[in-house]
Amino acid sequence: MTEERTTPLRERLIEDMRIRGLGHQSQRAHIRAVKDFAEFLGRSPDTATTEELRTYQLHMTDTGITPWVYNARITGLRFFFLMTCGREEMKRYMQFRTQPRKLPAVLSAEEVSELLAVAPAPGLKYRAALSISTSFGTHD
E strands, the chain, where? Predict the structure, then answer.
């Protein structure tokens, strides 16, 4: 296994994370985020412009990076630019993505009737509970 070369910038990032008490997994995620950005740039990430940061975010979006991974990378870059580089202006150009919410499955009136019909015996108590719980969310 080859050991990765530690640059003074990376060492400073690691020290900043240790000072702020970040856990091991968070440190690894932040290092990975900065490394990915550096590979995208082809040079040291502390020299990035706001336009290059914007282009990187578009690149992540266009290549299908999930919102979860995208946001983890932005969090890492945010820490890097704010704490390690002291470049507060970069924060304004970092946008988080929202995870699309899926609508819950809603039973049709027919499905609700079938569900109530198969409630276990003696049934009255169960049917009453199911009737009440299935009536929430219906707007007549």
Answer: none
Integer Cα distance of 90 and 97 in angstroms: 17
Do 51 and 107 belong together in one domain?
A: no
CATH number at residue 26: 1.10.150
Shared-domain flag, residues 34 and 78? yes
Q: Which of 16, 17, 92 is nearest to 53 (CA)?
A: 92
Domain of 109 in residue numbering reads as 103-135
* Judgement on whether residues 89 and 113 belong to the same structural domain of the protein: no
Q: Which residues of 14-52 are buried (b: 16+ CB within 10 A; e: fewer)?
A: bebbeeeebeeebbebbbebbebbbebbeeebbebeeeb
Predicted TM-score (pTM) of the model is: 0.69
Residue with tokens 């890097």: 80
pLDDT tens, position by position, for the chain (140 residues)?
Answer: 445 678 999 999 999 999 999 999 999 999 999 999 999 999 999 999 999 999 999 999 999 999 999 999 999 999 999 999 999 999 999 999 987 777 777 777 787 777 767 766 666 676 677 666 655 554 44
